[in-house]
Amino acid sequence: MQNFTYCAPTKVIFGRGVESQIGTELRELGATRVLVHFGGGSVKKTGLLDKVIASLTEAGLSYVEFGGVEPNPKLSFIHKGIELGRAEKVDFILAVGGGSVIDSAKAIGVGLVTGNDPWQYASTGTHPERNEVFPVGVVLTISAAGSEMSNSDVITNDLITPWVKQGITSETVRPLVAFLNPENTFTVSKFQTGCGIVDIMMHTLERYVTGQDECDLSERIAEALLVSVREAGRVAIAHPDNYEARATLMWASSLSHNDLTGCGKIRKFPVHKLEHPVSALHDSISHGAGLSVLFPAWAQFVMKYDIPKFAQLANRVWDCPMDFDHPERTALAGIEAMKRYFTEIGMPTHMSELGLTPDEYDAIIDLTTKGGTRPVKSYIDLGPDEIRAIYALAE
């Protein structure tokens, strides 16, 4: 077991009707004027935004609305949020939405509390000082990114060419409170539900198959989460308003990315680093869809370096019989079982399904590796040749 520090201070308020507690909770956290941040019109159509505003008003809090967040939150829009927050003198940001809205809110908070462009931190791998925290809360509407409890904030710089997608990892961006009502995910489309299922699994799997590090307890927790998500995902796809299935996915979203399943493990996230340039160059490609294509191909490419762990994953999560004489067969069977599951829930598993062709590979690889100067860390360094081989396996 590796040394680790575990910190998950986000207060979670979970269940039906939790929106009524928003105003009181935010007031107790010191809020007086709230920036209510959201994406498109769905939170208005469902009535969720009205519930949020009503709770703030009842608690005597003033607010200003700032909607319009797009997938892969854009730096240019974040700049507008920072300007609005300063002009309106807000002292709390409440993100009403999924991962993109939450990450946009986090980045706005970084700009407000530091006075610096959030990209300064994302582009350099640095982060604000420990005491520089702008309070952010979340009303979650999509079970996927886990940003509601994570110390991660991924944004896209649309002010440069080509666009670049990078993140800030720091305790300064972890939300103070998250309101999780599974009913708010009933209207999420089958495709976006599938993308969320994949993202939840990836946040867990990228902490599970990392190298020759051993931590049986964390791995057992991860396996239980993955099996629960596997089954709840099937139910949610078939029956979108099944509360228990949606509740499982929502809680798993949070647990998959608050580092619980990675305690004592090495954290590298190579497949996320392979995917971010894909959805940066092609804004229409959903993050979860990119991961469902790239993770199985990456796993097939690197499994020879960790056959026991990939075979264990296949046996415990994907119900593949263990071939003790040839565990590599079990490992490969697990990868194929995962791909079948992704197909079952409507997710792509081939580059062509993302609309990508081989003539685009060089541009994506160049962005991924900073012109071939910075390989992606994994079981081995993944440079241009290795990434091209992974793409070939994904075709």
UniProtKB/TrEMBL annotation:
Q: What InterPro entries does the entry give? A: ADH_Fe/GldA (IPR001670), ADH_Fe_C (IPR056798), BDH-like (IPR044731)
Tell me which domain of life the UniProt entry assigns to the organism this sequence originates from.
Answer: Bacteria
What does UniProt give as the signal peptide span? none
Q: Which UniProt keywords apply?
A: Oxidoreductase
Ranges for domain Alcohol dehydrogenase iron-type/glycerol dehydrogenase GldA: 9-182
Which Pfam families does the UniProt entry name for this protein? ADH_Fe_C (PF25137), Fe-ADH (PF00465)
Location of the Fe-containing alcohol dehydrogenase-like C-terminal domain: 197-391
Any one GO molecular function term: metal ion binding
A single GO cellular-component term on record: cytosol
Protein name per UniProt: Uncharacterized protein
Q: What is the lineage of its organism?
A: Bacteria, Bacillati, Bacillota, Clostridia, Eubacteriales
